[in-house]
Amino acid sequence: MDSPQSLFTPLSLTQALPFLPLAQSQVDYASEQRSNPDLFQQFEQEGSVSVMLVSGQRVALPFKSLEQAKLGGGLLRLALLPGEYLPSCLRPLAGAPSALYFLGSAGNQHFFALDLDLAGRQLSDEPGREQVEQFAQSAQSRFKWLDVKEFAPRGLSRDVGLATSALALSIWHNAQRYCSYCGAPIAPCENGWAQQCTQENPARILFPRIEPAVITAIVDSQDRLLLEHNSAWEPSLYSLCAGFVEPGENLEHAAKREAMEELQLPLGEIRYLGSQPWPFPASLMVAFKARALSEAFVVDYEETDCACWMTRDEYTAALATGRMSAPGKASVARYMIEQWYGREL
Ligand SMILES: [Zn+2]
């Protein structure tokens, strides 16, 4: 019998993932502009502001979007509003914190996200808060609201990128409301990309929290893929070995440690495939492919309750009978499985 090494083809490890829906970056972040507190007003005077709306971890689309996309087969787009559409209480005042995040520019079109949840919390005066509530209520009925996982597989890639950034910032600003050093309230700054402590002098700047996680497509010497079922998932869903990076370790170590923890499976060569943000709430998924040094594994029966090596034919049959289902169309796991499978799922 051939040794595992002789059957192994290193080329199969080196193909990167060509497309990841949440990792698109067609808009120039124009990060050098973020420190300008009058950015919105300046772009608005040029008539070149487009505002998307985010609320409750969802983004706004034109109301009939889904029906039109079904009829025409087109891609879903965000509702992008001109600056004049915003009521006066939602416009940024010079020097005051606002709920508008500057997402970047494409030519002379400048994109902002208005976070309706943050806007509601920022206003302390009663008439202003009422105006925000009315605007938010009418927006709920005038637009179609989707979460990014629903939007991404059918969305224009520029708009999916904008939605991902806006959602990541919104989740962060609405979760982190106080300075983690002194406990004082914070205020957004840098057009949404940072926060500053309102107590410390000079003001301490706080940056968004991002939690890296590794996910690994593990293959054996016969190029079978290891699929595993997590006890918290629906019974048919099978995916790849994944977990958070711990303090003090690098990404490769995290991939090897997770395979040992979940499967007691040692990994050999590891190759980077790609990465995409997963802002639910703050992850960055880093994808690897790795070869197992053994075929034997033992599931931990805590996180993972079942795992199996699958050939492509076995996987095709498992999907056809419904014994297995694939991860969602926005997830990096799906694209990793497709890369191994050789075609779209
Ligand atoms: Zn502080």
Quick recap:
This protein has 345 residues and is of the alpha+beta class. The protein is 30% helix and 26% strand.
The top level CATH class name of the largest domain: Alpha Beta
List the helices and strands in order: HHHEEHEEEHHEHHEEEEEEHEEEHH
**What's the CATH H-level homologous superfamily of the largest domain?**
Nucleoside Triphosphate Pyrophosphohydrolase
Helix content: 25-40%
Instruction: Give the structural class.
Output: alpha+beta
Q: Please count the helical segments.
A: 11
Family: Belongs to the Nudix hydrolase family. NudC subfamily.
EC number: 3.6.1.22
Keywords: Hydrolase, Magnesium, Metal-binding, NAD
Cofactor: Zn(2+); Mg(2+)
Description:
There is one protein chain. With 345 residues, the protein is of the alpha+beta class. It folds into 2 domains: 4-20 and 210-341, Nucleoside Triphosphate Pyrophosphohydrolase (Alpha-Beta Complex), CATH 3.90.79.10; 34-175, Nucleoside Triphosphate Pyrophosphohydrolase (Alpha-Beta Complex), CATH 3.90.79. Helix content is 30%, strand content 26%. The protein contains 11 helices and 15 strands. It has helices at residues 4-7, 11-14, 39-45, 65-72, 116-122, 126-142, 148-151, 157-175, 251-263, 312-321, 332-341, and strands at 49-55, 58-62, 81-82, 100-106, 109-115, 143-146, 186-189, 194-197, 205-206, 211-219, 225-230, 241-244, 267-278, 283-292, 304-310. Strands 1, 2, 3, 4, 5 and 6 form a 6-stranded mixed β-sheet that branches. A 4-stranded mixed β-sheet has the order 12-10-14-13, with helices on both faces. A hairpin with a 7-residue loop joins strand 8 and strand 9. Helix 5 (116-122) runs antiparallel to helix 6 (126-142). The site of zinc ion has 8 residues, from loops.
